[in-house]
Amino acid sequence: MMENVDTGVDGLNTMLGGGIPSGSSTLVLGSYGAGKTTMGIHFAHRGALNGENVVYFTLEERKESIILASKSYNKDFTPYLDKNLFLLNPGTVEFVEMLKSEGNFKASIESLKPKRIVIDSISLILMVAENDVLKRNVIINLSNALRDLNVTSFLLAESNVSIPYSSRDGLAEFVSDGVISLQNRYDDSIGSTTSIIRVLKMRLTNHDRKARPYSIGSNGIEILAKSELFQ
Q: How many other C-beta atoms lie within 10 A of the C-beta of residue 39?
């Protein structure tokens, strides 16, 4: 029987029928402020809380910013840091160089024996890659390395402004087992913002295919997984 991995967000677990498949890679898409990093913090914290080894690569934010954000959502990383939660902040160019070979990436983290990995963000990696061939190679090498390591991963990415259900580069979703979209919808006429989440793809699961509202507050992301507001 397939094992489900707790995402750390109860409403998302409900939408997925219990969690994401163990060993899978999930792309989390969204524009700025949609909650991608918050989702990654939930996922990493739940793994650490469960005693799993977790590696969180932060390429856009300083480590101190991620730790501060984790505390603000009552998902404090501090008790687990360098014990079973490893917060890494490599240079983006250095990271791209490492991903030119899937063996280099695996060798860099194998000793940490991770069960979960968060990469924040894939978009920055692809932005630094010099050409389309390198972009494809980097994504494929990363995907293969994650599978070989048998880890469950969240890959965070900026959505395309014109096509919000696609990543900015349109590459990572094709090598991911799952795709989750976080989207802010703005109504300027009344000055309101509505946040919706949709599971666009999740292999091996009979997932919810409807858009659901969510909010971000003092406990992080809360999804109203049974709401019928957005059908």
A: 28
